[in-house]
Amino acid sequence: MYEKLIVAKHRTWIALLGALGLATVHQYLFYGHSLGISYPVFILLFYLYMYTYAGDKLRAGSWFSRFAMTVIILLSLTYGLFTNPIFMVLNALFVPCLIFLHLAYMLSHRRLAWHRPKLLIDALDHMIPQAVRHWVTPFRILKNAATGKMEQEKKKIVTKILIGLVIAFPLLLIIISLLTSADRIFGNLLSTLPNWINGLSFGEGSFRVLWIVIGGLIFFGYLWGFVQPYIYPPVVDYRQQPLPGSASSVSGVGLSSPVPPVYGPQPLLASPVAKRHPVRIDPIIMATILILINIVYVLFVVVQFSYLFGAGQGQIPDGHSYAEYARSGFVELVMVTSLNFVIMVCVLLYMADSNLILRRINNSMLYILLICSGVMLYSAFARLILYEQAYGYTYTRFLVHAFMIFLGVLLLVAGLRIYWKKVPLVKCYIVLALTAYVVVNYVGMDRIIAVQNLDRYEQTGQIDFDYLNNLSSDAIPVLLQRSATLLPASQHYFRQDKAYLFEKEQSWQSINWADYRAIRALRSDGSS
């Protein structure tokens, strides 16, 4: 049955009806509803639509395809499991981008490797040029079906009428809505006309219809860009040179009437093609740079060790308090470590071949750079812990912690690459980045921040109650549980400020596990 669908005579119309159905589901799930369980539901339906009607374009599955699909599903599920505002915004941008990259990898005729930068260009090509050019495909097919047996002149007339109707329909909806709002007399005049004309006003029903039509065209265009992609012609270099047979290309004596020279663009078929060499860093230049910066880093690390490991016991440099120590140089250390990481990656990826001695020197310098970067990263990590002990835990500080851990893992992978040249650095970094992002989404940032701030309150008696109260629903259960003993006076304010959850939309499209747990905790706390 599936093979019959792919080769069906009316495959285009079937795919268009599927796109309109998907757009109908889209407006039903998202119009007037906040994101929740509806988000992963729609993504699954979208993939079902793409894989059904473009199934003949699918490439063979790979471990990365399954990995990327798992990441997409897990990140989409966060809208039904958590309510962290930062990740809700980030995932709204990241998940669609990842979907477009994944579909370009699975369906594009170019069959690019998933770690190639050209995959980004291919995804953008299918998002905009390939998709937009097929927005008119349904109207073109409709025109051909309606004017198949008409004369050429009548075809032009019908085509122009159809184009006019397509453009006028949304314009009429907008114009009538604006005019009826601007002029009450005009609105009263329309009320005397038949009821179906009143339906042209830009109300909810009309907006939903417009949503479905536009959404259907967008989904169909994106699908059909994979089914019938435009194949760009190869680029040929040309230059001005005499055409074969011209006077300038003929040598000899006794020609009574030489052929006048004729010039024109000629393909460079006979000329040698310049061989492109990849960008490579000279090993001697790089060795000099690494040696110089490592001298500075080693001196810094020696000084750092004099008080880094003693900071926890209060051995802070003279003239500095805990807060001043924690603040001083933290941002700079993270920036330097990041710069070192970039240097290491550039050397590992773009270093030119060299003799054994020079290669060993550069590898030794890279190891020194790696160790110094690790010490700097640890120092920045320790300073941030001191800063949090003094000022509390926030979203920003949590994410900085996560970034430093992630950067440390990347440095370790770079260290493995120094020894084992076969380690696929770019592939490892892509997989680690996606994995780390999923982990940070699922680790429960709000809950951890709440626990850490309450632990700090037990130790120091200091707490930012307003910041805790502004955390998302993920933190409400632990806040209610622990504040009963730590902050009994705040119980009433917690329940009062979170009362909006009881009035939040309860339709199934907006089901959210974090909100459910928070409401259950509030009810349990209120009954006790």
What can you tell me about this protein's structure?
By secondary structure, the protein is an all-alpha fold. Helices cover 68% and strands 2% of the residues. It is built from 24 helices and 2 strands. The protein has helices spanning 2-6, 11-30, 38-53, 63-81, 85-107, 118-127, 129-132, 137-146, 152-182, 184-191, 195-198, 204-227, 283-305, 322-327, 330-350, 356-391, 395-419, 425-442, 445-460, 465-469, 476-486, 491-497, 500-503, 513-527, and strands at residues 238-242, 263-267. Strands 1-2 form a two-stranded antiparallel ribbon. α13 (283-305) packs parallel to α16. It is flat. The two termini are 60 Å apart.
Distance between the termini: 60 Å
Topology, number of strands: 2
Helix and strand composition category:
mainly alpha
SSE arrangement, N to C: HHHHHHHHHHHHEEHHHHHHHHHHHH
Q: Quaternary arrangement of the chains shown?
A: single chain
Radius of gyration, Cα only, in angstroms?
33 Å
Summarize the main sheet.
Answer: 2 strands, antiparallel
How large is the share of residues in beta strands? under 5%
Helix content: 55-70%
- The gross shape turns out to be flat
Rounded average pLDDT = 77
| Helix count, DSSP H or I runs of 4 or more residues | 24
Strand order of the largest sheet: 1-2
User: Which runs of at least 5 residues are low in confidence (pLDDT < 50)?
Assistant: 196-202, 246-256, 262-266
